[in-house]
Amino acid sequence: MKLSEALAPIDGVGEKVIDTTEEYVKKADDVILGRVMRIMDHAPAFVTLKTLADAGGISASLSSIVSHPETFKAAGLDMALDVPTMSFEIWTLICIFQALSLAKSALANNGNELSQSDITALAMSNWVAARAIGSENPLLDTIIVALVSGYALRNNGNASGDATIHNTSLQLMSSFTTVLSVLGSVAWVSHKIPLLADSASVVGLLGLASYHVMATREGNGTVKMFVNAGILFGMLLGAMEGGFDLSVTPENLMKTVSRIGTAYVAWEGIERFRAALMD
Description:
two-stranded antiparallel ribbon, 1% strand, 279 residues, 2 strands, elongated
């Protein structure tokens, strides 16, 4: 008997062992290692999202979500209009939608749903947003957040497009910080003009005029309309607080004009959002 014939059964067993091992290794790649590698693909966005949530005092457990919108509002940004504290709850929505997006992409059966450029855009947006909290130059850093968070949307044609689970967080962030940036810029410019610097009522009217332009411009997507409607509704509630003083004084006249203007701009913003939902 030749040696090769004697070793044939052993070779057969060896090949079967190798084939079986390779088969199980491939299954391990698909089930475990592939998932781990894909989660690591999303790590930059997960890490910066945690940084943003920590900076804003947002935390979550199986039973509840804790948020501190006053942390974002207390960032020191001077604005032409008072954006209600409750509007800053939008940062909690941003974190929730982004966490869902990252999880869905990382765990999808057919590979990552987010591209590497999408993940980088999320990570950069989270980083600059976290950096803006407590910034020594809040207006500049808020403008940077608006520009960075809108970058991927503008380049992918989603700035005013339909909302998806993967672009909603950036649409919310970009829309909200754009409002803050415009109102902050109006206040900054007004403070540089001596005639306006000491007239809060006039600065407020300039802020309302600017917001009216933002809320009624053509091309606003549903998410941007939602953000505008929410902020304006909160502003309207704030304007109605304290009742009405019917005495005829310059201060009360300006306050009445401001309330009427707020009501009109709020109606425009809310009505446009309602129409968008109904269409």
